[in-house]
Design brief:
Radius of gyration of chain A: 24 Å
Structural class of chain B: alpha+beta
Shape of chain A: globular
Strand content of chain A: 15-25%
Distance between the termini of chain A: 61 Å
Chains: A alpha/beta, B alpha+beta, C mainly beta
Helix content of chain B: 25-40%
CATH topology of chain B: Glutamine Phosphoribosylpyrophosphate, subunit 1, domain 1
Largest sheet of chain B: 4 strands, antiparallel
Oligomer: heterotrimer
Number of helices of chain B: 9
Strand content of chain B: 25-35%
Radius of gyration of chain B: 19 Å
Number of domains of chain B: 1
CATH architecture of chain B: 4-Layer Sandwich
Largest interface: A-C, 47 and 45 residues
Helix content of chain A: 25-40%
Structural class of chain A: alpha/beta
CATH superfamily of one domain in chain A: Aldolase class I
CATH superfamily of chain B: Aminohydrolase, N-terminal nucleophile (Ntn) domain
Chain lengths: ~500, ~300, ~210
């Protein structure tokens, strides 16, 4: 091999003075970094992905992990990554696959938006003592109400309300399919969603029987592969989501590798055992907006107009016009997935280069819908790289009704964002179907962790709102007056319709 | 801060402005001398069928020519004059207050502008957003707003407020905190027959502004109160909600209260919150709104004002 | 009937629906059980994501016929448009989707197919299939075409297999049923003059990617 090997990404070492030779690192590492030879634990650093399972499980804190122990000559253009990708492709002639979200070091707009607080002229509100309303309804709202007077002189509502989802907090858990992640991960999140009065997405992998008890808190997804989709599935969901695209890989389909399609996955997806589960890039009954309108109506007809239907699109350049088209259909919500959105596996070139940031997408979609007088026709759900309650508050202030979290929920289950989800070896029992690994994740404990995360963010959101003198989430929504831009250029400020700090 | 007063004579008999001047002057400690104003209904009985447009002009050449042209394009000016004023030591006359009595012509009304009110609303928005040096600050029928930067008594004397007779009077004494103290920023804020005086700060302003601007209103006064007049016009006039329903939309019951209501009432209140969530006003406020058939007063939901 | 969409959408049970005229799109979508007899042509995507039941179309049908169909039967007397049988799939023996076309089909027949059977009889045609991309991306199931199929018509990942007496035995009941519906003599079709097309691999795209 003329190319030889590239430097290892990580160097793992054990402090032998600390080590008690318990072997937990060997047991826990599914990537095969550790092995025992005689009375010694040997280390093969090259296999390490920095999932940190060994570090977390070592009872003596004896393990040290160093990133880039051997590096290339530094160069601002020919970075290590660039060089290694070329070497990889020179060897293979293939498309490079990667996991999780966009890993490029681009400025994050959320970090350059600042929130407001009250001083003197209006009192802060204390969410501990005073009412703080986060209740959010997702779905179509009338643009105006009509009343009529009854004979007895009472005022009666004439307008009929469309079905809406009621959220106790504007945080939902996005779609991660059974197959991409384990049943125990889905169970953990479903229990948490039910406990927190919110919803989670099934992803495109069908609805496993074990999740039926939580179906009132599940949004069932219909993607191009139509895995697990039948009338029973549609009727079980609290809402139905048509997935057109996702932020990690706009414009292309996906496939779950055959090795992840075990018996349970096969049954839930209703596909053959062991074969790739292929989602084509487009839905083959949707080649136009008119076709999408037809699928939405078809889903509504099948479920007797009792369920909200969402449409999920990746944030691409003309996202606002697409969303406006969707708003004119019978769809009840549009999910916009920004270019930082995560995934089990995506071609790296797509993950890192296609699409636009969610912040700009929320802003332009909200504006376009208002310009066209259809903002009430549809709710906006933002997703793709929402990391904290601050990102949540800023998303809502830019105009979103609620957010989907994905990676954040997985991190609350133990994920350390090593990005090797597509290998079926996830040592945290999340992105794997290997029974021994899946059993490491206890759904009861997992549910507590996910629920805690949502609770913590919800408390923080209440505090942020209270400090801004706002006691109802409606008054934060689209309230860009309470945002200021810091180190954002004029063009971006204009898109966000936000004043610079100090103004 | 700020001080507000509103009163009505239910028999519609008119009283002159001397009492409200005296009343407002008692609240000087709630103001900063940066603005005061009065709204009076019933003051132009001779022109009761015409829109009384009160305008601040920065110059009588260019700005006024543009407004004249726009009005003539959309209808007929039956009378116009400078609003009479008397110099006051405390007031620097930076604008010329002017009034037109105007009637939109019927043959221009179609589609989006199907009524006289729509045409006048359009003209107000167009002038305030796009004609430099002109601000229409009052546009109702048989009513008018008089305001300026200064102490209440000075403003009243400047406009000789005691010479007007109205059956509804609103008054406001300003202590600006979130916007510059300029004449257009003084209260009352008016559109058509809606006049608003407000004490407090609207923390939901950005949301409310985005909402009304989606319906063609343009917030140009650089202060939050303006949006309340537009919210009343949108909900009360365009959507035909009763005054009570408008207030219910702007300051709705809490969800836990709604959850405890009987089903029908709960559904009505839920519908209001879902439909008019973006109109909900947050933050501390006490507001009095004048309309041609009465006055509406309400406060924020947890009574942070008046204080 | 002219253009009514969503007939039988999500319908369950044993109903029998007779349609005189041309139904609109998504006929029998998510359907589970009923039988629809259509005396006329059908529009876009009849049998879309259908679970079980039967569509008998006494005419031709548009694009994406039997899209993602998971079970049941669709019989089309004449021709179908592009992407017929796309992404049909099967996961249990009893739930095997079947699409039979009396005439011919346009390009991308059985694209992404993951299970089930597509049968094209080419009645009245010199060649049953003349359009390209047959079985493009197929990773399960089979496409059986009357007579020979030119190699250049096969899509990526599709492969020809010999059609055997065993195969005939398997599909004979389906042919008989089809002929019964439309009044053909089944004897005409009960020989081994067919081409069977299936997946070259159950993982057609596995070799496209390399890990980061």
């Amino acid at each position: 091999m003329t190319l030889g090997s590239v430097p290892p990404k990580f160097k793992v070492s054990i402090d032998r003075d600390q080590c008690m030779d318990c072997g937990r690192c060997i047991e826990n590492c599914s990537y095969g970094v550790y092995r025992r030879e005689g009375d010694k634990i040997l280390i093969e650093s090259r296999k390490c992905t920095a999932c940190l399972r060994c570090v977390a499980m070592c009872p003596r804190d004896a393990i040290t992990l160093t990133e880039k122990p051997v590096d290339y000559r530094s160069h601002p253009v020919w970075t290590r990554e660039v060089r290694e990708d070329i070497i990889n492709q020179a060897r293979s002639g293939k498309i490079i696959l990667s996991g999780m979200g966009n890993a490029r070091d681009l400025p994050i707009i959320y970090d350059r938006l600042l929130l407001d607080a009250c001083q003197v002229t209006n009192p802060s509100i204390d969410p501990l003592r005073e009412p703080m309303e986060l209740r959010t309804y997702i779905g179509k709202k009338p643009s105006r109400l009509k009343f009529r007077k009854t004979e007895s002189g009472d005022v009666e509502l004439e307008t009929k309300l469309a079905p809406n989802l009621k959220l106790d907090t504007p945080i939902m858990i996005g779609h991660m399919s059974f197959g991409a992640i384990s049943l125990n991960s889905q169970l953990s999140m479903a229990k948490a969603a039910a406990e927190r009065g919110t919803y989670m997405g099934t992803g495109e992998g069908g609805l496993h029987k074990a999740l039926y008890p939580y179906q009132d808190h599940m949004i069932v997804q219909v993607a191009s592969g139509r895995f697990g989709v039948n009338i029973d599935y549609l009727e079980r969901g609290a809402a139905i989501e048509i997935k057109i695209g996702q932020g990690a890989k706009p414009g292309i389909g996906g496939h779950l590798p055959g090795e992840k399609v075990n018996e349970e996955v096969s049954r839930t997806r209703m596909i053959p055992l062991g074969s790739d589960a292929i989602s084509p890039a487009p839905h083959h009954d949707i080649y136009s907006i008119e076709d999408l309108v037809q699928l939405i109506r078809s889903l509504k007809e099948a479920t007797e107009w009792r369920k909200p239907v969402f449409v999920k699109i990746a944030a691409v350049h003309n996202v606002s016009s697409i969303a406006a088209g969707i708003a004119r259909s019978s769809a009840d919500a549009v999910v916009i997935d920004g270019f930082r959105g995560g995934t089990g596996a995506a071609p790296k070139v797509f993950r890192d280069h296609v699409g636009i940031p969610i912040e700009a997408a929320i802003s332009s979609v909200d504006q376009k819908l208002r310009d066209q007088g259809v903002r009430n026709e549809i709710s906006i759900i933002a997703s793709g790289g929402i990391r904290s309650s601050a990102d949540l508050a800023k998303s809502i202030a830019l105009g979103a009704d609620a957010v989907y979290i994905g990676t954040a929920a997985l991190v609350s289950l133990g994920c350390r964002v090593c990005g090797n989800c597509y290998r079926n070896l996830c040592p945290w029992g999340i992105a794997t179907q290997r029974p021994d690994l899946v059993s490491r994740l206890d759904p009861e404990q997992g549910a507590v962790q996910v629920s805690n995360l949502i609770k913590g963010w919800t408390l923080e959101l209440s505090e942020l709102m209270g400090a801004a003198g706002i006691n109802s989430i409606e008054s934060l929504r689209g309230n860009r007056d309470r945002l200021r831009g810091y180190m954002l250029d004029e063009g971006m400020l204009e898109i966000l319709d936000v004043l610079p700090a100090g103004a | 801060m700020c001080g507000i007063i509103g009163f009505i004579d239910r028999t519609k008999s008119r009283m002159d402005g001397s009492s409200i001047k005296a009343a407002l002057s008692l609240m000087n400690e709630r103001g900063s001398g940066d603005g005061a104003g009065y709204a009076a209904y019933g003051i132009y009985p001779d022109y009761a069928d015409y829109y009384a447009l009160h305008v601040f002009f920065d110059n009588m050449a260019e700005s006024k020519t543009k407004v004249d042209e726009l009005l003539q394009q959309w209808g007929k000016i039956v009378h116009q004059e400078e609003i009479p004023t008397t110099p006051q030591p405390g007031i620097k006359k930076v604008h010329t207050p002017w009034r037109y009595f105007f009637k939109p012509s019927e043959d221009l009304m179609a589609g989006r502008m199907a009524s006289e009110n729509d045409v006048v609303t359009y003209i107000v928005m167009e002038v305030n957003a796009n004609v430099k040096g002109a601000t229409i600050f009052s546009s109702g029928k048989n009513m008018g707003v008089f305001k300026a930067s200064g102490w209440p008594e000075d403003v009243a004397n400047f406009y000789m407020i005691e010479n007007y007779k109205g059956y509804i009077w609103l008054a406001h004494n300003r202590y600006p905190t979130n916007s510059p103290g300029w004449w257009g920023g003084a209260h009352p804020f008016n559109l058509l027959n809606w006049s608003v005086v407000h004490n407090g700060e609207i923390t939901s302003y950005g949301t409310n502004q985005r909402y009304v601007e989606g319906y063609g209103y343009k917030c140009t006064a650089l202060t939050d109160t303006e949006v309340v007049a537009y919210l009343f016009d949108l909900l009360g006039r365009q959507h035909e909600l009763s005054h009570e329903m408008v207030v219910r939309a702007l300051a709705p019951p809490f969800w836990d209260d709604i959850d405890r209501m009987p089903a029908k009432e709960a559904n009505l209140n839920k519908a209001i919150r879902l439909t008019y969530g973006s109109a909900l006003m947050n933050g501390p406020f006490a507001i009095v709104v004048g309309t041609d058939d009465g006055i509406v007063g309400f406060t924020d939901r947890i009574k942070l004002r008046p204080s | 009937m002219l253009g009514q969409r969503f007939i039988g959408d999500g319908l369950r049970g044993n109903a029998r629906i007779i349609i005189n005229g041309v139904p609109g799109g998504d006929l029998g979508m998510f359907m589970s059980g009923p039988t629809c007899i259509i005396h006329g042509n059908a529009e876009h995507a009849p049998g879309n994501t259908m679970d079980s039941g039967m569509l008998v179309i006494h005419g031709s049908a548009g694009d994406a016929v039997a899209h993602s169909m998971r079970g049941g039967t669709v019989f089309v007397k004449n021709n179908i448009g592009y992407r017929g049988g796309i992404h049909m799939k099967q996961y249990e023996v009893e739930a095997r989707p079947i699409l039979v076309v009396g005439g011919t089909a346009h390009s991308f027949l059985g694209e992404y197919m993951a299970g089930g059977l597509v049968l094209v009889l080419g009645i009245g045609k010199e060649k049953a299939m003349t359009d390209r991309g047959i079985g493009s991306g197929i990773h399960g199931g089979e496409i059986i075409v009357r007579g020979e199929v030119d190699d250049y018509l096969l899509g990526v990942g599709a492969k020809k297999f010999k059609f055997t007496e065993n195969d005939l035995e398997r599909i004979a009941p389906i042919i008989k049923n089809f002929c019964e519906q439309f009044g053909y003599d089944p004897a005409e079709f009960l020989d081994t003059n067919y081409t069977r097309i299936g997946p070259a691999s159950s993982r057609p795209f596995a070799s496209k990617y390399v890990w980061e």
